[in-house]
Amino acid sequence: MARRTGRRPGNPDTREAILAAARSTFAERGFDGASIRAIAAAAGVDPALVHHYFGSKDKLFLAAMNAPADPAEVVPTVLAGDPGRIGERLIRAFLSVWDSPAGTPALALLRSAVSNEWTARLLREFLTTQVLRRVLDHLDVDPTESPLRGSLVASQLFGLAMARYVLQLEPVATAAPETLVGAVGPTVQRYLTAPLDG
What we know:
Layout: H1 12-33, H2 36-43, H3 47-54, H4 57-64, H5 71-79, H6 86-98, H7 103-115, H8 117-138, H9 146-166, H10 177-193
């Protein structure tokens, strides 16, 4: 009888223990403060096992929060092209995720974040470290302004998601995506690149 090749299936209990420890650690320490070593210790496993299951801290974070999309795949399309139109491309990419089947878990995550501080922390970390930091690092902005700029952009993204998908506020709820790109994109662009004073 021939042996099967390839990676052996892992223990689902171990994988779930790692995910539970990751959720707790990321929520408590944030993305930057959490380490694979700390997550492994909380799960009672060797750090190599965390890498075996998830590969990297970024991938573990996405799995821990059941992220609707991988920013490493979406953000490059936002950054490609005229820097003066990143706001429009960011809104277009945001809506394309939310209007796709991935929007269902995203909506559940947003609803949970409204009433659950733990989920709110994870969602905040996801948006700031996985999306907005990548966008702001690409732009030539004063690093001391990045936190405020990122928060202002987040206010537009979360506000748009709440109005369109949770409250279903008309006509935003049924507006064509390009209508919203044209309306909201310039505001996001201003938050990203325009002077903040006055």
